[in-house]
Amino acid sequence: MHCIADAWERHETELRGFLRRRARSDAEAEDLLQEVFLRALRQKNGLCGIDNPRAWLESPAYGRSRLRSHGDWS
Fold first, then answer.
1. Model confidence over 33-54: pLDDT tens digits?
2. How much is the CA Rg of the chain, to the nearest whole Å?
């Protein structure tokens, strides 16, 4: 769990900005951010052992923001 907390502390502001630029609203960006970190929580090792947690977090953030912008998000 400490790896997720470390990643959140280091990358939350950048990810929030990344998502705000792509989302239709601040509320949508916050929802996307929560989804990304929930996905991280579900990771078997909780981001421990991942060389670049920022890239790992940005990948689903980018994918989810694209789905929403195309109306494919549920």
1. 898 888 888 887 778 888 888 8
2. 12
